[in-house]
Amino acid sequence: MRMICLLVPILIVPAFSELSSAQIPYNTPISSVEIEGDGPEMLEGIGIGSGDTLSPAALRSAIQSLYDRGGYGRIEVSTFPDPDGTRLVFDVEPPYFFATIRLEPERLLDRSVSSYLGLPYGQRFSRAELDRIVSEVARQLEAEGYFSARIEPLLEFDPNTRLVTTTIAVEEGPRARVGNFSFTGQETFSSEELLAAIDIAPGDRYLGEDVADGLDSIESLFADLGFLDTRVEVAAEDHDPATDTVELTIAIESGRFLQLAVEGYELSDEQREELLPIYEERSIDADLIDEGAFAILEYLRRDGYLQATVSSRLFEAPFDDASQVTYAIDTGERSSVREVRIEGNSFFTSDILHERIGISRQGLFSRGVYSPELLDEAAETIRGLYRASGFAGAAVTTEVLTDAAEIAVTIRIDEGDRLVVGNVLFSGASEFDDGELAALVNLAPGASYTEGLVQGGRRAISSSYHSRGYDEVRVESAVVQSGEDRIDIEYQIVEGSPSVIRQIMVSGNTRTQERIVHRNSGLEAGTPYDPEAILDAQRQLYATGLFNRVDIVPLNRPASGERDLLIQLEDAGPVVLTYGVGAQDREGIRGTLEVTHSNLWGLDRSISTRIRGSRREQRFQTTYREPRLFNWELDGFASLFMERARQTAFDASRVDFSFQSLKQFANRDNLLLSVSYQTVNLRDIRDNRRTEEFPDEEGIIQIARLGSSYIRDTRDDILNPSRGNFFTGTFQFASTGLGSEVNFTSLFTQFSIFRPAKQAVIAASARFGWNQPFGRTLSLPITERYFAGGSTTLRGFGLDNAGALAGGNALTILNAEYRFPIPFLLSGFGGTIFYDTGTVFERISHFNFGDYTHTLGFGFRYRTPVGPIRVDFGFNVNRQPGDSGSKTFFTLGHAF
To answer: 92: how many CB neighbours lie within 10 A of its CB?
Structure first.
């Protein structure tokens, strides 16, 4: 049974100095010392034992030692007469621990309590810590205007788990309003001007965030006049309970006046604030001034002024509390970096080294990047790379040649000999023998030496110890050069003691059932206490999307070889509403609305409904997700999809009902199996004089099919990849034996590759599709054929206007792009040069490279959190009669 209290029970260590000798027989010999109750036995080292004389000081010291070392929450002492003296019994009880801490009502703050202050989840319960939490909550409530709030902590003690649930009950009262403002400490601005800057009027609702923004606005007023280190703060904040208003006194110190001059080059106000740290730090000293000079110099060099010089002067006027800083700039001639050559390297490729150094040659939109300081850093970076890879004697020299307005940089590398591993030694290990440890580190005598391999071995040893419950293991590596080309390595191990998980407790889950938490965490009682497994469990719980916060903490219960875990949770809101408005070259304005419930019945099941509409297309889709289909490691989906669309070659309405199961492998590979039944209503099939072999009939067609898809995705960023691959392959089978009116097989594959090229990205994609009718089906409905042309396939054509205009049974598309940044125009802005080729064939037997179309083009990109905004200009190279010569596309997301 749980106890609910309004007061915190104090864990009492008895004040034995106040006990009479009649109660405790002091000055008698101790015959034995025992511990009774629920808790670990920690008698060793408490300073009292058999044969000692019982005294108040010794007893107090023993109790304090037990309290500190044993993790007890209550300690009581009993004495019993014994023929050999006095039998001493400590009656103990384990402590309580902080678990869920919530505010009631939650709406008083914008976010959960845990986002405002650190909460002591898993720590021993104490009144002092509770008082701190209540005080912090009161401060946050005042920042929201609740000055009259009454706060009362309600405590729920669970004697079985020893967890305390804290509800901070608040009777909020009315929200305060702003009273009058008064200003002290300055005469530069009038009160009216300062009030206008604060933008808060008497009678407005009080909000601490608005007041803070107002203070920042006042600082900006002074900064615009050149007062750099102005300080504005609330000197007094007086709340009048009778009127429930807050009178604010604002203290202002205008600070020092700065006059800044830049001679020899024009810097805008924005550039000055970006380059000169005196603006950010709001202070003036020699180091900050020198930092600013260096920042200006680097900016000029990146703009092509490779021989620029910048000097600074500081003039002080202490009586006027003013300073003047002057930057004198001599830009010199504007130059370009004609060449950056790397010679003598064989272990590292030149491309790898060019990526690591901070200098680069001129490009399409850049004069290159160079400075003597950057060149020194580049040389040191290369030396570090070689030394980390075992080339202890690697030497790097540089040479710079200046010819008119061009600079050529040469970096010469003398790699030297590579070090090899000598002896690999281990000390301090008992859990693993030397052979097991040697297999873990994978460093054999004679192997090439690198720092990365040594550190990888250290991590492998630590991980193996963690997997056996040695969470406090320490592994250090010592490296000694034992010859000109040999390195001896010693791993020094301090094992500590192993622990196992005794029990796992879950708290804070108000919407999600506890078994879902245990299932997704993967943690089990009785297994080794592995900190890496605990971290992975936290990631897995976050990945479900069911929780806003996940803390997995051990409870501080010192006991030999056992740990208790607390999984403390904050449930996320289960219902999410998203909407958006966009535009697409074919559809025009398009709107989307989606509603998702992500935690049906607290079992991680979800259902979503999505509606999308434009003048050419209207879609409705609802999907139900079952996270463990048939209690297997499968995601199951049931989906209803309805669409009404006006395509280039036809109009159609579809209703599709499908079941799918998804199996994920190692977060990169996915296998999808599906079965679907589709009803298609074909209308208004447009005439196509170039195609006479597809005798479509308007009307209703039923299609039942089975399908499977394999997906492998190693991209580093799904929305804007710079490296990695993407592959998908889908096979479908439709047959009258399944209830379909048509028979066909379908195969579609796509492979995309992304590779960095200095600051740019080279991207390429290949797509192949083949639909084959069989049996009594001689041709496929137009809805099942492939089309090409448009913003994601062949950008020299309008949508679906490339190849067979009534579609075809075979598709080949190849795309290549060179994506590069254009940072000097706008942060996040970039450009693309692309080439598209391929077409659609009516039959696979019609395949002919000579029929391929070819598109060249360029485009611009602007990065956003939901993908790049894209504008592409495609030009049809081998234009045929009736084809367009060029097309422009404006859309969201990359072409592939």
So the answer is: 23
